[in-house]
Amino acid sequence: MAEGGNHYSGVSAVPENPTTPLVLQGKRKRNKFSIISAILASMVSILLGYDTGVMSGASIFIKDDLKINDTQIEILVGIINVCSLLGSAVAGRTSDWIGRRYTIVFASVIFFVGALLMGLAPNFAWLMVGRIVAGIGVGFALMIAPVYTAEIAPATARGFLTSFPEVFINAGVLLGYISNYSFARLPEHLSWRLMLGVGGIPSVLLAFGILILPESPRWLVLQGQLGEARRVLIKTCDSKEEAELRLAEIKTAVGIPENCEDDVVTVSKRSHGEGVWKELLLRPTPSVRRVLIAAVGLFFFQQASGIDAVVLYSPRIFEKAGIKRKNDLLGATVAVGFSKTVFILVATFLLDKIGRRPLLLVSVGGMIVSLLGLASGLMVVDHSEKKLIWAIVLCVFMTLSFVASFSMGFGPIPWVYGSEIFPVRLRAQGVSIGVAVNRVTSGVIGMTFLSLYKAITIERTFFMFAGITGVAWMFFYTFLPETQGKTLEDMEGLFSTSRFKWKLSMKKDNDVAENHN
Questions:
Q1: pLDDT tens digits, one per residue of 218-252
Q2: How far, in Å, are 44, 88, 118, 381 from residue 200 at the CA level?
Q3: 3-class secondary structure, 344
Q4: pLDDT tens digits for 92-144?
Q5: CB under 8 Å to 379, separation ≥6 — which residues?
Q6: Which CATH class is domain 30-516?
Q7: Where are the domains of the chain?
């Protein structure tokens, strides 16, 4: 709690105009300090990516070494996502209490302990304990990385910078696959332990690296530390004038008068997170309800599309397609990780150029086509008595196309969109709800995929994912407004307008941008 100064309530007074002009809208030069901060903070997401990718190959060796069945493999693979629910649920309140920066450090420490336990595991029970601990750390990381990045990024580059967590998730997946391939030739009892244990190394480096970053300016305002928030904004914005405008908007959203010039003020407890759950879930305003539905829908459909089934079980999918040798399976899996990582760079550079909504719709459309192609290829292989090379190639190509389509839009956009649409007073807990839904859905997919495809066949499973993804496309098309170029403080006003009105607003903004260019 800040000392001295004036006392203000935490009642939000968000500006009504959702099209507040950006300062220096034509200025496109990237702020190097905000980019460095976003990169370092987002690197914590590499922990989830590595753990997800490495388990796809490690599970092959764990099954043979510990003599466990497919049901135990499903639990082992999926439990980290279920346990991350606890981490993401607690992370929202923790980040409001100790700050965004120290929450990232806390996430790194927890994951390190989990990786150490997994690397030293003598049996299945010990391995499960390590997965549970690592899952809690993953939940913290998933929630806090996009929130911190969104809050420190200038509006002109927020999509670019907020997509970094997904970039590092994909990089982590690729590193996990490479780790599988690198350690596969070691003795069975040693290979999987090294695959899992080395994941703790980057978490230690990250914990120290994060300490050099500034705290989120929006969190500082919530604590009444206006002077420190101003200094951070001056470093991370394109100009001092833009920094002052952002500070004024944040103060208004928190309930502090814009003309307050004190460096330290006292804000009510409501601005520290108390009462947020009631405002989000029990008595939401129409705009908050719409924001919550949009965020939850994005996070749910991201995993319900079946992406984790492909990432976690790609060796199984390729085996069903007709590839049998372990080295060939792991080599094809590395190609999946490479495709997933390369195409996330497409999204990184297009989010602030063409917008969230068009990129999302194109991405999800590509996923639907790829899933239908993969399911068709697997059906041909399943009903053929001899090996069909063209069908195997089709399955591999459609798998690569699926993860590429996912990465170029549907991968990063839920994290970008979800972290920017919540009002500042609700952001941490709102994102934690979305992440919780995301992790539960991922856990259900991871823990049921093998049983599901054995029950209804693998091709029907992917036809089912294609149908779910089709429903997702319709939801996004009818429900999600464009947020490109809007400030974080404008979002509540944007979501309080009708669908017709925000379409007109989008057209007007595009016309203005074209005339400006």
A1: 889 888 888 898 898 888 887 788 888 888 888 87
A2: 11, 20, 10, 40
A3: helix
A4: 788 888 998 899 999 999 999 999 999 999 999 999 999 999 989 988 887 88
A5: 459
A6: mainly alpha
A7: 30-516
